Amino acid sequence: MVAEAFFMSIIKVHNLTKHFKTLTAVDNISFSVNEGEVFGFLGPNGAGKTTTINILCTLLSPTGGRAEIAGHDCTKDPDEVRAAIGLIFQDTTLDAGLTAYENLKFHAYLYNLDRKLTERRIDEMLAVVALQSRKHDLIKNFSGGMKRRLEIARGLLHYPRVLFLDEPTIGLDPQTRNTIWDFIDQLRKKEKITVFMTTHYMEEAENCDRIAIMDHGRIIALDTPPRLKEMLHGDIITLVTSDNQRAAREIERVFNKKTWAENDGVCIEAERGDEFIPKLLQALSVETRSVGLKKPTLNDVFLRLTGRTIRDEGLQNDREITREFVRSHRRAQR
Amino acid sequence: MIQLRPIYVICLREFKKFFREKSRLLGTLARPVLWLFVVGNGMSSLIRPQAGFSYLQFIFPGMIGMTILFSSIFSSISIVWDREFGFMKEMLVAPISRLSIVIGKAVSGTLISVAQAVIILFLIPFLGIHVTIAQFAEVVAVSLLVSFCITSLGILIAARLTSFDGFNIIMNFLVMPMLFLSGAMYPVSAMPPALRHLSQVNPLTYGIDAFKHALLLNATPPLGPEFPISLDLFIVAAVSVIMITLAALSFRSKE
Known about the structure:
The structure holds 2 protein chains of 2 kinds.
Chain A: H1 2-8, E1 9-20, E2 23-34, E3 38-42, H2 49-56, E4 64-69, E5 72-73, H3 78-84, E6 85-88, H4 100-110, H5 115-128, H6 144-156, E7 162-166, H7 174-191, E8 194-199, H8 202-205, E9 210-215, E10 218-223, H9 225-230, E11 235-241, H10 244-255, E12 259-262, E13 265-270, H11 273-283, E14 288-294, H12 298-306, H13 313-333
Parallel strand pairs in A: 3-8, 3-9, 6-7, 7-8
Antiparallel strand pairs in A: 1-2, 1-4, 4-5, 9-10, 11-13, 11-14, 12-13
Chain B: H1 4-20, H2 22-44, H3 55-84, H4 87-92, H5 98-121, H6 133-160, H7 166-180, H8 193-200, H9 203-215, H10 229-252
Helix pairs in contact in B: 1-5, 2-3, 3-5, 3-6, 3-9, 5-6, 5-10, 6-9, 6-10, 9-10
């Protein structure tokens, strides 16, 4: 069984490490992605997601370890790897001074697509992302969502086996975000490709077959979204009381359950939350101001694993600095 | 290592963008016209014609050199734009060699510069010099060589330039000195020794000298050519080879 699963993996990463001067952006990670899977990297900004993608797509060399795509080593055979992958970067990489058609044609020439096939494929992909009517319009007149869609069309133009999406919907409004996801779903069925994506939106990560949760350059959990959520035992109840610390002590003593603080409240896990709330309220001596009950999300899983929410404010600033550092460093290297 | 289709499509993109950006074309053409007819005419009243050549005629080869200098540097600096706006990534992750990218940029930059130099040549009737077809062809041939040399230099700089902030530094500390110390506006032999030595290590000096050979027939120094044509061509060619090699090498490096 194990051997078979290994045979099917299209991406294999083994002990991958990347240092930037004093910063360890990727810290000894190993994983594999099966063919046809939608695989997600979830983590806060600066966790090392983009650095990992850049190594996989041959833009960066790793400090240590190995990465392989479709049987080709990312360091030794970069051209074979490049031909096998399509990329959609965080920031747009279209030429705003060219038309949609010209951008796609440029791409087709770089990937040495057959001339006749090129025209047909361009029309086909423009139809998939619903941009046929804008074929000969300049990119500078496109909206953010249209640019993203065109980039997806371009990333798929050369029949890649793996499509990389680095924060594919960052900076887009929720409606456009949904449209993009519909496209990705459709494509997956039509083109039978493997999708590797990074995100820090929990809702997006739920669309993946499997998720690797990344923090500080390490993979701290890797599984299907339902299985990750099973790590939490059932529902999550959030109480806001007149004295949260006292409430927490009482709960721990009476029910022998672990509690944790989140925002202004105390949180407890319970298998049947709706039935547990009345018992809970009876047992408490402090005044209860509000009670919340929710099904666990990936955000809770992340909180549980790291002790922080994924978009913690203070953390965010800290991460932004790391990210800026990595970016400026990357620029300096080119 | 050298793939023709990517090179072709990189060139095609540059040409399309060049002809779409009318302001860029206008800017690079307006500058030499301004120098020639405003500065050239103004200075002509101060500098007496020598051996039948006026100052206006003297600076014309220099203005072709200036057109090429600005055009080539601007073309190659587009690499920095491409990097800033992300398009460079599209090329870097494609299954093409870095050398193909460099050659694509060098060829397109060269041809765009030559095209502009040729447009400047149509000012010849206003200068009172007679140019034969052979001379015209000679100027075009030298333009090709000089354009390639300066474009390669520009690519080498662009590969090292990490952001657009460096652009002003390049303009003020490289491009303008290269122009002023090239014999374009005053003969190299008329400069003080320190500046003359700087001019002698400036490849553009030899390019402009070659233009003087082609256009100012029978002119003698100081207004005529100051170096042998064989030396001019050899130096421009040698510098071109060195620059394009260094440019290709600096593009290949990644961590």
